[in-house]
Design goal:
6-stranded mixed β-sheet, single chain, binds magnesium ion, globular, 9 strands, binds adenosine-5'-diphosphate, 10 helices, alpha/beta, Rossmann fold
Length: 277
């Protein structure tokens, strides 16, 4: 699914400016990581891309259409083609994993099949298969409130894998996972996007995860794009600038070193226009 953002601004109800002039072109099948300090606007940007929030100004096109010019029914249909993975998936505590995963296709199934599936899970094998990719197959009939925060995050990922959307949006999907599971989970998302040719946009707290898995890295700071580069061109200096407000340290998964530690673009520091693109 193609995405086009032109000078997007988002002012939140309280008057806070969450995004200040974001422009991005995302081609069909691209995989992009969004990194940046907390408060940079990552969640806001993902919610705009999922047509969950309406921009205050600027132009947004999802699959070549302005979602906010659509009828309510067409907007709902568009949202059904988008899979959103939340940092803390909003799953009903008493729901079993099998039902939570099958709910990924509720939008596609229509009311009656969906309601029937709540009473008797329609595609147990399919749900098990998605959960198995996240090492959770044996928890199929457990209730969500029996799981840890990290396990719930993986259920949120399994649900979107099961959904098979045309666009996957993930908001810090592995923030509660240990480094090994985080790599496995981000790897599954990337494999899914690559094998089915779908667009993937994920915000990540850990910079090393982003650099290792994604061919395009967007650094977001103060609601604006600070850089938009392939991982090989993201320098230490650019990362230090990006996280300058956040206690001077670059957030990493484990003790692993950065994938590309050499400073490469120091000369470009302080440039007014986004770096690399
Ligand atoms: N519901 C809200 N009400 C007021 N301000 C908010 C709300 N949500 C986010 N913000 C503010 O908007 C800015 C961007 O937030 P967000 O998109 O959540 O950033 P990130 O995901 O990068 O941490 C921050 O300054 C944050 O404090
Ligand atoms: Mg956030």
């Amino acid at each position: 699914m193609k995405l086009a953002l032109d000078a997007l601004h988002l002012v939140l109800p309280g008057g806070k400016r969450a995004l200040a002039g974001v422009s991005l072109e995302v081609a069909h099948g691209e995989r992009i990581a969004i990194i940046g300090p907390s408060g940079a606007g990552k969640t806001s940007l993902l919610r705009l891309l999922g047509a969950a929030l309406r921009p205050s100004s600027g132009a947004l096109a999802i699959a070549d259409v302005d979602p906010w010019a659509l009828t309510a029914r067409a907007l709902q249909k568009l949202r059904g083609r988008i899979g959103m993975i939340h940092q803390a998936p909003p799953l009903p505590p008493r729901q079993r994993l099998v039902t939570a995963v099958l709910a990924g296709r509720l939008g596609a199934w229509g009311l009656w099949r969906g309601l029937a599936s709540l009473a008797y899970p329609a595609d147990i094998a399919g749900a098990r298969e998605s959960l198995a990719r996240l090492d959770l197959a044996e928890r199929l009939f457990d209730r969500c409130d029996r799981l840890s925060g990290g396990q719930l995050q993986r259920v949120g990922v399994a649900r979107v894998l099961y959904q098979r959307p045309d666009l996957i949006l993930a908001d810090e999907p592995v923030s509660a996972l240990d480094p090994q599971l985080a790599h496995q989970t981000v790897g599954e998302l990337n494999r899914e996007a690559q094998t089915r040719g779908v667009t993937l946009v994920a915000s990540l707290h850990a910079v090393d995860l982003a650099l290792r898995w994604f061919p395009r890295i967007v650094g977001l700071r103060d609601g604006a794009v600070a850089f938009d580069c392939p991982p090989l061109r993201v320098s230490d200096a650019m990362l230090h600038d990006l996280y300058a407000t956040e206690s001077q340290t670059i957030p990493l998964q484990g003790g692993e070193p950065l994938a590309h530690p050499e400073p490469m673009a120091r000369a470009a520091r302080g440039a007014a226009t986004p770096l690399c693109r």
